[in-house]
């Protein structure tokens, strides 16, 4: 009598997707658009400063005002269309509700305190803590403010109602600058967090 000792194959676990392809594409396209818009915007700012300082030419894009404006417009279209696609996909796929809610002041405070003490866990990258949720929602709002204030600065006459809501053309310039500064601050903080948790970069490249 023959005894069969062959065991059935062990089922292999399918890798868990942390970030879908559409999210990774919009993330990297947005990174490119922000880099173009910020550095060209600094060159445009130098032509008519709002404050008593200039940005070094080594960190600006365009070489001169005309060149910087061309780069800024190119980045503007990429930033705008990519941002609209990102928001719509988050809404219609249900990701907005799943990833960013619920959000409470107490939860933000507790997670921020844990982060400052080095005790905030990052085991499951599919889950955003309260600080991440607040930061990502803030940068979405900031991006909308950037676009709206940018439209006033670019086409003030064509958007009179928007210009009035912004407090006038001159105020819109300050709003645009402060929104840009907030975005840069978010990027710096984001890069610091990536350096502290390198696997988040791998997940944004590979999806898992």
TrEMBL record:
Its main location: membrane. It is a multi-pass membrane protein. It comes from the Bacteria. The keyword GTP-binding does not apply. Keywords: Cell membrane, Electron transport, Heme, Iron, Membrane, Metal-binding, Transmembrane, Transmembrane helix, Transport. SUPFAM superfamilies: Transmembrane di-heme cytochromes. It is found in: Cell membrane. The chain crosses the membrane at residues 21-44, 64-89, 134-154, 174-198. It comes from Rahnella inusitata. The lineage of its organism: Bacteria, Pseudomonadati, Pseudomonadota, Gammaproteobacteria, Enterobacterales. Belongs to the HupC/HyaC/HydC family. This is Cytochrome B. Pfam families: Ni_hydr_CYTB (PF01292).
């Amino acid at each position: 009598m023959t005894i069969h000792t062959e065991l059935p194959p062990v089922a292999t676990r399918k890798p868990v997707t942390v970030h879908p392809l559409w999210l990774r594409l919009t993330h990297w396209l947005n990174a490119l658009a922000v880099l173009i818009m910020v550095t060209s915007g600094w060159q445009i700012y130098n032509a008519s400063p709002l404050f008593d300082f200039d940005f070094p030419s080594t960190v600006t894009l365009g070489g001169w005002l005309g060149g910087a404006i061309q780069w800024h417009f190119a980045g503007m279209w990429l930033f705008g269309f990519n941002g609209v696609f990102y928001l719509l996909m988050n809404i219609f796929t249900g990701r907005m509700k799943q990833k960013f809610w619920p959000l409470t002041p107490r939860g933000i405070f507790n997670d921020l305190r844990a982060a400052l003490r080095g005790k905030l866990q990052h085991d499951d990258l599919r889950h955003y803590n309260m600080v991440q949720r607040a930061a990502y929602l803030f940068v979405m709002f900031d991006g909308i403010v950037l676009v709206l204030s940018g439209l006033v600065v670019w086409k003030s006459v064509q958007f009179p109602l928007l210009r009035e809501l912004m407090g006038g053309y001159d105020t819109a310039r300050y709003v645009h600058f402060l929104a840009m500064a907030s975005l840069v601050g978010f990027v710096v903080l984001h890069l610091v967090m990536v350096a502290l948790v390198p696997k988040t970069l791998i997940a944004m490249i590979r999806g898992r």
